[in-house]
Protein 1
Amino acid sequence: MKHAKKVLIALLVITLISGCTSKKNKYTDKVESVFDVYDTPLQPLNTIIKITLRNESKLKKIMPLVNERIKNIHELADGYHHFSGVNNINTINQCTSEQFPLQIDPSLFKLIQHSIDITKLSKGYFNPTVEPLYRLWQDKFSPYPIENTEPSEQAIKEALSCVVNYQEIDDYIILENNTITIKPMENCTQGIKLNLGAISKGYAADVLLPIMEDDYLIDIGTSSIATQGQWRVGFRSVYDPTKSLFTINTKDKMILSNSGDNTQFFLLDDGTIRCHIMN
């Protein structure tokens, strides 16, 4: 992988343009629910999740199951926290080679398998083993970055040695009967580590689809949206959040996903953007 180079990234952040109003039409007669499944500041999937239905009673009916499924996905995909009785990404990343194979939840098994499939389909442009590289920049990313030093070339080289080539990923990550085994890789001193941050929100939307009723809009962190029915979805400029570049009037089922460089980034002295999107 190479560093992300200086670019003007024309990636957009999705936001719902039309809010709840008393005016009744095919776009605005809806009910919204914003929720946090935890009683602590920790948010599900570290973002805000919004479920919108046009019928309030149906919305209240499905919310307990929505909360349950989002909580489950969050705990399984979390790479930095331990949850009692849960073997999650954090558990996998802390395992030594002697502790494999590790039994994992069928939902996590499916998510990791899906991640590997996409890795191969994208020829490595998506890669769940990028965690060692991501860690080098992770603490520098913030809405208001104040630290702008690059990791050393040696640190980058060591991290890259643990990012698995897409053509070999099946040789190092073995999935079988709801277990996972991660094999040692030559020259990788810190071990292969997983990061599902780029896929977990979209996967969460997929998991919620079967329990939705009638027309719906699922908004996970404004970057992953799934809809059924007619809605107006706006694409907000990453350079001016008060402006919408364009809108889409959805019809029937639609899934939208995107990313940008306007929240997790820092600037080098020469103005180059370093963001959480890596090539």
Protein 2
Amino acid sequence: MWSIDNRGRYDRSKLRYPSDLTDDEWALIGPLIPGAKRGGNKRTVVEREVVNGLMYILSTGCQWAALPKDLPPRSTVNDYMRRWTDDGTIDRIHHVLYVKCREQADRNASPTAGIIDSQSVKGAEKGGARIDPAGYDAGKKIKGKKRHLLVDTQGLLMCAIVHAADIQDRDGGLLLMGALFGLYPFLLKLYADSGYQGPKFKDGLKHVCRQINLEIVKRSDVGKFVVLPKRWIVERTIGWLNRCRRLAKDWECLNRNALAFLRWASIRTMMRKLCQKST
């Protein structure tokens, strides 16, 4: 938490842009980025500058055409983002940083409890036959996409998917849990709100993750604000991710690009968490 005493941990005024990577942050993810393929000319693109370009887009929420001239061209940054998404580089970076954050907190690499929730995001003005369709969330009166998140008890992102907003939480939750593919074998407990209540999600959860027990954390009947156990953790994670202005709305035409930016936002959070220095 930011305070006068620890403000030095968050000072990025000496960087070219506040979104740029520090040397310590680059040391975490640089070795995880694949090198150039054999054959052909030598790679002239600086991978660190590509990541700086991605972080600039993510942090400021600017248009691709508004990328500063001292960063790589927008076509280069966009091409590497798609390439790293398709070959699983982003997933590998995210998982390695996740394990390091767990070890830093003296926790096992695989958590035993998780919290699931969703966030409906208003879509931007876009259209066409080659975009992933949006939907209308009647409960929140939002037309756009829905981000489904699974976090651990520290608030670190474990898994996420992006889909149309008209998909109910219980259906999207099953898609999310089915995307784990045994990544967290010791996960035994899942906390959720009343949107996941009912036999459909419970039975489907037993089919995709037999060892996980579901616990519904219901809203308090008290007529005032009450912090609900465990559920506040995933809400805080959503707040962390929304510090990246690219996530303020659904600007992406494809769900895979929206998910890529969501993962980069989580990577950004974990990098800064690992590289904070007490001053």
Protein 3
Amino acid sequence: MDKKERKIKIDEIMSLVASEQYTEACKIADEIEWQKITSFSLLHKISNLYKINCRYEEAIDIILMAYNRCPSNKNIVYSICDLYLEIEDLVNAEVYMDLYNKMAPRDVDGQILKFKQLELVEASYETRVKQLEKITSMRLSAEWEYQLAEMYHCMGLATKCVEICDKIFTMFGDGPFVMKALELKMLHKKLSPVQQDFYNQSDMAEALESYESDDEYMPGSDDNSEDDFHVKTIDMSKWNTINLQNELRDSMRELLGEDTEQILGKTDKITQSIVAPLM
């Protein structure tokens, strides 16, 4: 593959990634010899693509190529450590974690890597809580605050859990972790009137959105989904009562299957009541 062909392929990959077609993008990535690419930023993106597809070995191979081209880039070092944690390679993860902390000693992402390591080795709740408290003191994040609240909940520290849940509601006001925090708080204490009103409204909005997004049959719809039931069309030009009854019986037999004679026998009277008004 020459440079021109490779560029076309890479552009196609980026287009597929932009439209979140990660599997298709990965298939094209398999066709390219990435060791010939000099751009560390591009290699980093391709490594992330393989990571999204849970192909961690390929992701590591390519991120190490990126590191060889730019060993001073802390984001690449972070990604290497994160990938080693994904495959539970604690030895290599420790090496790159130490390297990252030397490169960015005051960066909260180093503390996040440490927390992931603690989770992997199933460290005590107390140890993990201390790490989470360190993270939340360095970064204002609904996700990390919620993780801290959840950890307090697991430890049976109801008061601290409720305090963090209230903090999440006050600081962030909306979003999935706000709703999660309110639900977590309800396990220990009643919501305040403002919180309850917000929760009820959000819950109703979510239910309405779910209802409106459901596939509903509309007259004239062209939806021919295989999951729909299709009853045999009746030729209404046959206005003879007997013919119409037979058509209805055949239609029901086709829908319900072979073991329906008993059911159909019981429905004769119903069928007759349907046909009668047409006579």
